[in-house]
Description:
The complex is a heterodimer of chains A (269) and B (268). By secondary structure, chain A is an alpha/beta fold. Chain A is built from 7 helices and 10 strands. In chain A, helix 3 (111-124) packs across helix 4 (140-152) and helix 6 runs antiparallel to helix 7 (235-264). The longest helix of chain A is centred in the last third of the chain and has 30 residues, at 235-264. The N and C termini of chain A lie far apart (53 Å). Chain B has helices spanning 25-39, 51-62, 65-98, 100-113, 122-129, 133-157, 161-169, 174-211, 219-228, 232-260. Chain B is globular. Chain B starts with 24 loop residues before the first helix and ends in an 8-residue tail after the last helix. The interface between A and B is medium-sized, with 38 and 27 residues.
Amino acid sequence: MSQAGTIDIKHLHKQYEVKGKPLKVLDNINLSIKPGEFVSIVGSSGCGKSTLLRLLIGLESGYEGQLLLDGQPIKGTSLDRGIVFQDHRLFPWLTVEQNVGLGLLNAPGTQAAKDKTVQEHIALVGLKGFEKAYPYQLSGGMSQRAAIARALVNRPEVLLLDEPFGALDALTRTRLQQELQRIWQAEGITAVLVTHDVEEAVYLGDRIVIMEPRPGRIKRIVEVSLARPRDRASIDFTAVKDDVLAEFRHEINHATVAERLERANPLAA
Amino acid sequence: MSNDTPNHHPATKKDKPARDWRGLVLPIAFITLWYVVTSLKLVNTKLIVPPVGVLTTSFQELGNVDFYTGIGLSLWRDLSGFLIGSLAGIAVGVLIGVSRLADKIIGPTFHTARQISLFAWLPLLSAMVGTGDLSKIIFIAFSAFYPVVLGTLEGVRGVTSAHAEVARVYGFTKTQILTRLILPAASPQILSGVRLGLIYAWLATIGAEFLLVNDGQGLGNIVFKGRMAFNIELIIFGLVAIGLIGNAFNRIADKAEQGLLRWRAPAR
């Protein structure tokens, strides 16, 4: 019997049709995520990491293999899974509290209880005092905080994060990574973070899933046993980071070789 | 600078800014010119009547109950036609905006029909429904209908897939998708269409009263009576009244739009 928030991915294959030809995006993905675990998925663009996340939230369908949440196959979207996209996707015509409240629109409970939960989550992400603000009045970081509150407000079992801080400046990104760690610990939720920022992956993840492209598959899984909160400047942190980065150096070299060959022989391209 | 701090917009000036009188330059210059050429008899004052005469007629009319009944009747026709036309316009715009099938079925007819000048419908309309209020209101409704459909269509097509995915994630029902996503997302363009519809409906009101002449009393009829009696003063008075009412509509629409779209970043 699995606990709430267990994700099981078994022999997952996914392909798209491109000009009538099948294009493999995900090839035999196997991954089990424990309840309350934080898993970071890193990979260069085209490795299928975002597709994997979109399958988990239920915005994409049509795959082979098994995709299970607490033993049940994932079908479509559901309030037991929350997501934060790279762009905040707040509704510009709603205030912060109304946007956060969208997460509870179709959840059971009285309006009074919902209002209370909304206020709690606005406080959780540090947006107290901005309840009545419209998105245009918020900075990028604040908008993303509001999006996190919206994703968490209905207390999902799983929080999915699709490069959530990718569009923010470095200072804001670092601060929000710390905040996200705090929130994740406070909520005890299973989290899956897709990122191309290796430092972010190491800072937040219990495990780091390294993916490689064409077709998208898992190359290696790195356990991060460092105590939290992690010190980015420590030798141990740097060692893990270098270990993960080394996996990409290889890939980059390959790309460079291919590019060089192409340049040397343009007719072959 | 970190972007985790709120955007600072220059404080919106709530205290009334000094009134800009520059818009009055042209009307005053025009009236002065009018006064000069008529008092120096540089023109035929039977056709180009002196402003004083218009003023006298205006005072007479302003003391006349018929004038106010006229305004009332015109406004009633205008607003009923506008309401029917714009509500139908929003409905049709949303329908062809969200449904590919409806677009395929209604779209071609709609886009062809709107190429026909509205005034070309009048003979048919008067032959079929007569020249009473019904045909006038139908005509006014059609005038408001077209711009509202086009605005709504533009707005509905502009709903982003990013926001539609948010709706899917939170399990929006069909009704919620309409009322909480499509209509608010499209509201700026819908309102632009409605504003145009409001202007067109007012133009159509006067046009209908003028062209579908019966014994009705409206502002258009006042102008018409002036023409029949060769009362240029009355015609000019009617024109000014029509213009001022149109202007009032515009101001009301401005206020309504500001209120409804306060979630948008102020234009700088």
